[in-house]
Design goal:
single chain, alpha/beta, 10-stranded mixed β-sheet, 10 helices, Ureohydrolase_dom_sf, metal-binding
């Protein structure tokens, strides 16, 4: 498996409370660590994969450091309580980008995602910059060639940029073009978009592509719109750019949001997706541990990931 490394068991450490009761468990005690990339051994489980990459962020003139996110988030998740759903998590390690070969790393992740999905695993990827999304989405499209695959992106940015090469700002334009190549519809909803952070050219591209757009100011009343989108597709891919959260909740990203969508609101939007029976793939991207001096942002991201795994049906 190109670019692959197993996760270090040292990342999964925490407090042992089993003296209280046999079910006083935390994630580090229930997660399965795979010594090899072997999704076929873990059918119907949730594959936890890291994409250790920030080459796309660098190309997009952002703050580098997201390559360290997967392992930082593992540490933050490790000591959280293990409840229903968390025992399905299997750590299948990291796809590591070798700078400057972003495209090679994306192809490796794309192949890994397709293999996991064909092995009847669902995929939960810890990015990495939002260049993660092209690889994750492409792998899902490959695995479900005859299905309507809907992308729900919680993000301050549309990420539909035109550029000479792939960046963290181009993944959904790339996925739209891939859908064109495969002669299939492009189903894309972007929720939490900041009008102040997206040029008119990007809004025009979203309109041309038929994108469902919900601005950050309107997320408190977006449930019906999202439900309508979910009803129109067969499979859901949920991608969460952590810069959708306000800067005071999530400062450790490439582009912190001055307004953003509060975590409680984000969770309210995510719960129906997790319970829909259509959610097949999730990722959290753009976390940058270099700008998280006291670990608060990692705890916010970890709680979000914890909740998704708990709700995922």
């Amino acid at each position: 498996m190109m670019n692959w490394q197993p996760a270090s068991p040292a990342l999964w450490q925490g407090r042992d409370d089993r003296v209280e009761s046999e079910n006083a468990l935390r994630l580090f005690q229930t997660i399965m660590l795979s010594p090899a990339f072997a999704p076929e051994m873990y059918r119907e489980q949730i594959a936890l994969l890291g994409f250790a990459c920030d080459e796309g962020v660098k190309r997009n003139q952002g703050r580098a450091g997201a390559a360290g996110a997967p392992d930082a988030l593992r540490k933050a998740l490790a000591n959280l309580a293990s409840h229903s759903g968390h025992d399905r998590l299997v750590d299948l390690g990291n796809i590591v980008a070798q700078s400057p070969d972003l495209e090679g790393a994306q192809q490796a992740l794309r192949s890994a995602i397709q293999r996991c999905q064909l092995a009847e695993m669902r995929t939960f990827v810890l990015g990495g910059g939002h260049e993660t999304a092209f690889a994750h989405g492409a792998g899902l499209l490959d695995a479900f060639p005859r299905s309507k695959v809907g992308i729900v992106n919680l993000d301050a940015h549309l990420d539909l940029r035109h550029a000479e090469q792939a960046t963290s700002g181009t993944p959904f334009r790339q996925l739209a073009e891939l859908c064109d190549e495969q002669q299939r519809e492009f189903y894309y909803a972007c929720v939490g978009v900041s009008r102040a952070a997206n040029t008119q050219a990007l809004w025009d591209e979203a309109q041309r592509r038929g994108v469902t757009v919900v601005e950050d100011l309107h997320c408190h009343q977006a449930q019906a719109q999202i439900a309508q989108f979910v009803a129109s597709v067969d499979v859901i891919y949920l991608t969460i750019d952590l810069d959708v959260l306000p800067v005071w909740e999530m400062p450790a990203v490439s582009a912190p949001a001055a307004l953003g969508v509060p975590l409680a609101t984000v969770l309210g939007l995510i719960e129906p997706l997790c319970c829909s029976g259509k959610l097949q793939a999730v990722d959290m991207v753009e976390f940058n541990p270099r700008f998280d001096d006291d670990g608060r942002a990692a705890r916010v991201a970890a709680r979000l990931g914890w909740q998704i795994a708990h709700w995922w049906r």
